[in-house]
Task: inverse folding
């Protein structure tokens, strides 16, 4: 399914986000994280190392790690997400707010 959307990157990334969120609702955290990471790699290939979709997916990875109780992984992931958000200049979005929530939950 994903391969057929290779030429439609925005749709592909939205699908990855939605399916990853569904896995989270189903409490299949590892599948969710794997899919979000696939999205991060795809966003980086298609839009370069600095882009807001990559930053959003990194926040989702950190949030999933925190939900699973993996504080060390969440801490590392939230630092990467924060750097990506700062680089993208996305410090006023809901993704930034979510990153702050995750950072306050797992990394204080």
Result:
């Amino acid at each position: 399914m994903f391969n057929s959307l290779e030429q439609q990157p925005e749709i592909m990334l939205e699908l990855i986000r939605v399916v990853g969120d569904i896995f989270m609702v189903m409490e299949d955290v590892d599948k969710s994280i794997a899919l979000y990471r696939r999205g991060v790699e795809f966003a980086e290939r298609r839009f370069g190392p600095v882009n807001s979709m990559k930053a959003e997916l990194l926040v989702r990875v950190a949030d999933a790690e925190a939900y699973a109780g993996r504080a060390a992984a969440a801490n590392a992931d939230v630092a990467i997400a924060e750097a990506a958000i700062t680089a993208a200049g996305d410090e006023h979005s809901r993704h930034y707010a979510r990153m702050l929530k995750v950072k306050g939950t797992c990394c204080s």
